[in-house]
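thread from #wetlab-drylab

HS: before we spend reagent money on co-crystallization trials with iron/sulfur cluster, can we at least see a predicted complex? here's what I'd submit
DV: go for it
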Amino acid sequence: MAELRDSPFIWVSWLTKIMTGETTCQWQGWFKSKNKLTEEQPNDFNLVGWTIDHTKLLTELQRELIKAGYNPVVEQPIKHKILDTDMVVSGKIDCIVEKEDEVVVYDCKTGKERSSDQAQVMIYIYFLSKNEVYKKPIKGIVMYKDKKVEISNLPENFEENFNFFVEVLSSTDSPPKNAGESCRFCSITKTDCPERID
Ligand code: SF4
């Protein structure tokens, strides 16, 4: 049985999948923001294989940037406190480089291209834009094995949409469950979600 967290917490990747509709069960993000899972549903995802691929892509990026004369900072944890609440949204930026005239945020993706990949980088750009440390324009790049997607500007209503979905996950009222396809990729077991469909 999951345990209540001392303080609520949202991991960026839960949020991006919900924001982009890749996960249609918003309840899973809402539940995990308030509870720490003590057991997780096993799945057939090859985590070790994914981790090695990701580390390789990030290492190649890091080498390329150093060769170009930059000083990349990798695996940088980032936290963003939601104003007037005790909610914290956390993530880990794969790579940040401060150049003469801009700051570039990189995120390496080894799987197929998804909308949530770009949403994740947009969230990092948004967090860094609120940080006094960076006074230069900030852009993002999603690095795939065979292509790059550049994000120079956030959508006009990004902040409003970000706050909307944070509110969905932090509200005292639970969003509805949507058992079905989303259960396949959900780590919540039947103990915590009896509606789970396997
Ligand atoms: S198991 Fe299914 S219904 Fe339950 S939280 Fe996960 S996705 Fe939603």
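DV: The chain has one domain: 3-185.
HS: ok that's useful, forwarding to the group
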